[in-house]
Every structure is written in structure tokens, then in C-alpha cells.
Amino acid sequence: MKQALTEPCKDCPFLKKFSHGFTMRRLKELALQEMPCHKTCRVDEDDEYSSGDYVVTDKSVYCAGAMIFLAKRKGQFTYGFDDSKLNMKASVR
Description:
This protein is mainly alpha-helical. It has 2 helices and 2 strands, in the order αββα.
């Protein structure tokens, strides 16, 4: 995956407005997995046995919300990208 987004989408789980949906521990777990933006993935729902999980494709990019979340916690930014390109003023937890 590559870095293309500079700020989170309006439905990003890392936004403060969704703070009731995930614990900080869970957000950290997700962010440390090099999380793709859910809007750039394919949803696995091909048949009755599909999981409904997000599947990374060749067009998937890293989640800007996850990158900002980690960048705000200095020393935890693991993607190897220049965080100066991220909108650090975004309302990310």
C-alpha cells in the first residue's frame, strides 16, 4: 500500500466523533497493523460464506486517520512516511 491520503474521511473510525465506537486500545491495535482506508478496500461478501471483512486491493492506501493517530503519539509512527504531509489538525483521537 502507499500513502495518498492526507486527512481522514468523514467516516474514519479514528475521528473523535466516533469515540464511543472503539476503545483507545483497539484503535492502537488497528493503527499498528498498517491499516488501509476502508473506502479503498473491497468488502468480502461474494457468497454466503464470506466474512464481510475489508480486503486490500492494489488500489488500497493507508488510512490517514490511523497515521495521524500514531503520529500524535510520538515514537509510534511505524509506516515510514513523512508525517509532515498529514493534516495534524484533523479531529483524530
